[in-house]
Amino acid sequence: MIYLLIVVLAVALDQITKYFAKLYLEGRTAYEIIPNFFSFDYVENRGAAFGIMQGKHIFFYVVTFIAIAIILYIFITEFNTLAMYEKVFLSFFLAGILGNFIDRVFRGYVIDFISFKFGSYQYPCFNLADSYMCVIIVLFIGYYFYLKIKDKNAKKSN
Asked: Which are the catalytic amino acids?
């Protein structure tokens, strides 16, 4: 099944990049790719997005299990009614959840290493798993509004 392959490959890519981040960035200063804008910087995140809720491991395990259960339930019960884009979105979202969950279980923290700076604002470090989830949320919201606008225009035409 292609969607399982998406999950496996996306999780593998996330874990490989975190492995190399730990190997080459841990204990070193940030490696600037584009000065004052984009760098690789090793961070051990023991919280959630942007470092909030530090050390709340039980909470993260419970929320993760619930999220995985919901996504698997949707895949199992609604597979034939889901559009292809919905299956892809769910696959990448599941990959993001699993990528960070693997870190929490085996390391006790999530490795973040991608860093952007906008002027004096330092955006919090993140990783590929975070990117999967955030990009999918943005795409889903964008597609939702696209469908609403399309539906509204279709109703006007009738």
From this structure: 112, 130
